Amino acid sequence: MQELSYYEILEVTQSADKATIKKAYRKMAKIYHPDKNPGDEEAEQKFKLCNEAYQCLGDEQQKGIYDRYGKEGLSGMRGGGRQSSSGFSDLGSMFEEMFNGGGGGRRQNPADAEKYPLDLDIEMHLTFNEAIFGCEKEIDFTYKTSCKPCKGTGAKDAKLSTCKQCKGQGQVYVKQGFMTFAQTCPACNGLGSAPSDACKSCNGDGYKETKESVSIKIPKGVDEGNRLRVSGKGNIGKRGSRGDLYVTFGVQADKHFQREGNDVYIAIPVFFTQAVAGETLSIPSLRGELELKLDIGTKDKQHFTFRGEGIEDVHGHGKGNLIAQVNINYPSKLNDEQKELLSKLQDSFGVESKPHESVLDSAIDKMKSWFK
């Protein structure tokens, strides 16, 4: 098997600058990291190759030697104990950023750290017409408030002790092959401290839950995935500050109308004789009935647009359109009388009723000439 170059491993060109190489390494390392591929030996091997490639290409001195002499030139450098440490320090900071949320600042005081986010997210399901025309609805939700006896720490009398698992460091170290990685301590969530005894008032959670209701006005035109912020109705923190409540909407599909942004589509079944004759039909819209004047000889799947008959934009930027799509229906069988009537109708059009003859006769004559 052909051995890949360091540039091929990171999928960059030899002219790539340091920032591009670093970005490529971050991308590859995230894909093949052992934590994301447990038990996958192939991914582990690729992860090791990525590390090896970046340790070289991420260091200008090693990269210069590699570009001139290849791996053979690096072997002499490493054997002589002159390997730069910058590659390893860069790797350490990079993995801390990728897998521990980044940031090199001081850890937060455990007594000040919140046990939960102050903003609260809930989902609300709306019918199609509720989303289109807006409505007012009451929401029942549960929010968290910091436990006063333990001051939100979850510890009896708010007394915290050094975390036994990480010994106050806030991080634990995991070895993967020849690499060692720092990860947030799962016991104390990176705070370095943990309760000696759990608070009896909140069972060590650090908070209590309270039910509340609030009435909200839903604007016209909301769509699937839209969010509405209700100020000051989220969770309450240790110092009494309260976050916001965010309501994410789900919208039920309608049997007849299909929404595409602010436009609405409706399928109109039309019998073939109506399409041929160009009849005028009465069709439903979001706000009543509309007249659809078919063209003579309307085609299957043809669209007819009614401007401004769609959905009102949720931000007040006008209305979308209603698009009626014609679906032509043909009879599945004919009786003798119907066949006779259709034959008479076809004959009444004369030559126009047999367009295939003028088009295909020349093709048939050409085909016959091939075998002369």
Chart the SSEs and their pairings.
Elements: H1 6-10, H2 18-32, H3 41-57, H4 60-79, H5 86-100, E1 120-126, H6 128-133, E2 135-146, E3 160-162, E4 171-176, E5 179-184, E6 193-195, E7 207-218, E8 227-230, E9 245-251, E10 257-260, E11 263-271, H7 272-277, E12 280-285, E13 288-293, E14 303-306, E15 322-329, H8 336-348, H9 355-369
Parallel strand pairs: 1-9, 11-15
Antiparallel strand pairs: 2-7, 3-6, 4-5, 8-9, 10-11, 12-13, 14-15
Helix pairs in contact: 2-3, 3-5
Search tags:
Helix Hairpins; HSP40/DNAj peptide-binding domain; 372 residues; 4 domains; alpha+beta
Short structural summary:
By secondary structure, the protein is of the alpha+beta class. It has helices at 6-10, 18-32, 41-57, 60-79, 86-100, 128-133, 272-277, 336-348, 355-369; strands at residues 120-126, 135-146, 160-162, 171-176, 179-184, 193-195, 207-218, 227-230, 245-251, 257-260, 263-271, 280-285, 288-293, 303-306, 322-329. Helix 2 (18-32) runs antiparallel to helix 3 (41-57) and helix 3 (41-57) packs across helix 5.
Question: How would you describe this structure to a colleague?
Answer:
With 372 residues, this protein is of the alpha+beta class. It folds into four domains: 6-100, Helix Hairpins (Orthogonal Bundle); 113-154 and 206-253, Urease metallochaperone UreE, N-terminal domain (HSP40/DNAj peptide-binding domain, Sandwich), CATH 2.60.260.20; 257-329, HSP40/DNAj peptide-binding domain, CATH 2.60.260.20; 336-369, no CATH class. 30% of the residues lie in helices and 26% in strands. The protein has nine helices and 15 strands. The protein has helices spanning 6-10, 18-32, 41-57, 60-79, 86-100, 128-133, 272-277, 336-348, 355-369; strands at residues 120-126, 135-146, 160-162, 171-176, 179-184, 193-195, 207-218, 227-230, 245-251, 257-260, 263-271, 280-285, 288-293, 303-306, 322-329. The chain has a four-stranded mixed beta sheet. A three-stranded mixed beta sheet has the order 1-9-8. Strand 12 (280-285) and strand 13 (288-293) form a beta hairpin. Residues 78-89 and 96-107 have low confidence and may be disordered.
